[in-house]
Amino acid sequence: MKYQNASKILPESLVKELQHYVDGEYLYVPSARHKQWGEISGYHNEIERRNEKIKQEYSQGTSIDALADRYFLSTHSIRKIIYNH
Questions:
Q1: Which distant-in-sequence residues (6+ apart) come within 8 Å of 10 by Cβ?
Q2: What are the C-alpha distances in Å from 64 to residues 30, 37, 51, 85?
Q3: Is 46 among the domain residues?
Q4: Residues of the domain holding 61
Q5: Based on the domain organization, do 44 and 85 belong to the same domain?
Q6: Number of compact structural domains in the chain
Q7: Percent of the chain predicted with pLDDT > 70
Q8: DSSP state, residue 85
Q9: CB of 54 within 8 A of CB of 63?
């Protein structure tokens, strides 16, 4: 994240209004769009693909214990993936 000079990107009237509250201080303006967990790194999509594969393997007869061993997850986690999604 880099700093921007407000007077270069905001209307003068808005800069004056902001100066009323934070004159000469740093101000963080959060993103208007909240990113979901794992959206930036792509990990969220990777987990979704893994979960789909677990469901597919289960539907083809692989046991919950075998899936837990294969994916290094607890049997409780495997059940949540299979039954809650």
A1: 18
A2: 43, 27, 13, 15
A3: yes
A4: 40-85
A5: yes
A6: 2
A7: 98
A8: -
A9: no
Q: Is 35 inside a domain boundary?
A: no
Contact in structure between 50 and 71 (CB atoms under 8 Å): yes
List pLDDT tens digits, range 66-82: 999 999 999 999 999 99
Dist CA 14 CA 66 (whole Å): 61
Residue 50 and residue 78 in one domain? yes
Residue 78 · residue 67 · CB < 8 Å: yes
Q: What is the pTM of this model?
A: 0.58
| Chain centre to alpha carbon of residue 73 | 21
User: Two tokens at 49?
Assistant: 């693909």
Q: Do 4 and 26 sit in the same domain of this protein? A: yes
